[in-house]
Amino acid sequence: LDRTVKNMVMALKCLRHIAFKMAVILLCYKQVSSESIFEPGVTDFSKVVKFKGFVDKSALIEVIFRFRLVHITTPPLFGKTTNLDMFRRFVEADIDENGHRKDVNSSYNYKLFRENNLAIVKDHEVFEKYVGKFPVLYIDFGVFKEPGSFGNVFEKFLHIVRDLYVKNKYLLKNATLFEKIPEDRDLFTAYLEGTATMKTVENITDALFFLTKYMKQHFTKSVFVLIDDFDAHVKSLMFKSNPDTDRIVTFIYRVMDKFVFDNEEYVYGALATGELRTNLYDTLNESLTHWRHYGFATDHDYTKYYGLTGAEVDRLLGKVIPEEQQRIKAKSEIDDYYKGYTVVNQGFEVYNTYSVLSYLQRVKVQQPKPYWCHNECYETLKKLFVLNKFTGLVERLVSNKTVHLKVDKPIYKKHIIALSEVISNPHGKQDSKLLQLGINLLYHFGFLSMHPNCTVNFNNEIDAHVPNREVLTVLQKALNEVKTKTNK
Q1: What region holds the AAA-ATPase-like domain (predicted)?
Q2: DSSP strand E in 91-165: where?
Q3: Tens-of-pLDDT digits for all 488 residues of the chain?
Q4: Whole-angstrom distance, CA of residue 436 vs CA of residue 442
């Protein structure tokens, strides 16, 4: 009996010890969470700037103004949408419900940058010249993630146009705006209410031209166009059979190219972000060449604003982990798991933003692990295994081998159609060039980076490898699942 009692006492002590450790762990987790390193899915810059894990990328704003049409691509979760919202808040004119400009210096967005002492504020010339000065049209192409038929895409575009009119309906309150052409007020109302004739590309571009014309007249300033998830339809069409792929891709690019490029009178500039660089055709006279494209980790001034630099990671660690030895350990784990994206010709590497912040959110209670490749990303990766020799390619990569690819090579419409056909019918005939497309997609989606010992040749070609343990773990998992399925 005495032995039984002693055992029970020891068991209770053990349980109490376990409960105490769990309480400590939960308390640590609660403390980290309450400090709000970041919140997954939150891209509203006015909220992001308040997080403890906020990194000031506002100097990007000056770089964007160097060119009229800018298209930036990075892998998912490297800060594109947050930076786009930051830029919108910086340039957008603050107005009341009647469309009257508010005093810039007292506006919420002006104070957002000024009171947080962001880097762009220190560039006095750019700050005073551009802050709160522009009317803005913000378009989210995320609505095309499931495009459906061409008719469905056309209908979604009509909704985009109508939403833009709804957001700018204050123009009808301007008593003098339509004095010269009174019938234009009726046309504006028809676009607003969805009763105008909208059956062709020209109808849509005319509606967008018309809106920007009167926005410019109202503000006496040309419009800035911002487009998020510019390639959402492409990523969907590439991995799913759709008889209307050709029409959809051509339609969207024709509308946007004509509206933005051919509208220099009313559109001051445009910034589009996405993951893929896509062109309609592989001939210069037919491709979407008017945009200046800047790819991820390539040799240009935008690179350091997407992903985290080593200095930025060090500053984050200093804010989050006060104890030096823990900080050194955390830096080692972050370098191993989330670093390794080598910037072409610039001699440094960047880290995966989302994964570093996710790690810091849980650093006191959890070992490093893959955070970045979410379900959609992972399922997309697995679909590429239908390509001939792709399994062998991934086996080489997880064995620390390199592959050869051309940096920043566009993905043409014919590639989108060819890949979707193979994924729909994996046992059919395949173009041998599709394997190279698969390699390029791995690079665009963040599964590959330039090898640090590699140099870029005259054809803009590099040797690429798996950048870090996070990506290696994801590739190995996908490879094992595909092999298991094949062997059944």
Answers
A1: 41-275
A2: 136-140
A3: 454 544 454 445 444 544 444 443 333 333 334 368 999 999 999 999 999 999 999 999 999 999 999 999 999 999 999 999 999 999 999 999 889 999 999 999 999 999 999 999 999 999 999 999 999 999 999 999 999 999 999 999 999 999 999 999 999 999 999 999 999 999 999 999 999 999 999 999 999 999 999 999 999 999 999 999 999 999 999 999 899 999 999 999 889 888 888 889 999 999 999 999 888 765 444 444 578 889 998 888 899 999 999 999 999 999 999 999 999 999 999 999 999 999 988 889 999 999 999 999 987 667 899 999 888 889 999 999 999 999 999 999 999 999 988 877 788 899 999 999 999 888 888 888 899 999 999 999 999 999 888 777 767 788 999 999 999 999 999 999 999 888 76
A4: 10
The domain at 375-487 falls in which architecture? Orthogonal Bundle (1.10)
| Distance, CA of 176 to CA of 171 (rounded, Å) | 10
Residues facing 136 on adjacent strands? 224
CA neighbor of 46 nearest in space, from 90, 11, 106, 2: 90
Task: Indicate the DSSP class of residue 399.
Answer: T
Fold of 67-92+134-294: Rossmann fold (3.40.50)
Q: Cα separation of 351 and 468, whole Å? A: 10
Count CA atoms closer than 13 A to 20's CA, side-chain side: 6
Buried b (16+ CB within 10 A) or exposed e, 284-300: eeebbeebebbbbbbeb
Residue type, 411: I
Which tokens belong to 435? 């394997």
* Residue 242, both tokens: 């759709």
228: β partners: 140
Q: Where are the domains of the chain?
A: 1-33, 67-92+134-294, 375-487
- Sole residue written with tokens 């676009």: 191
| Total-model pTM | 0.88
C-alpha closest to that of 76 among 256, 296, 240: 296
Greatest CA separation for the chain: 103
Angle at 190 between CA 189 and CA 192, to 5 degrees: 60
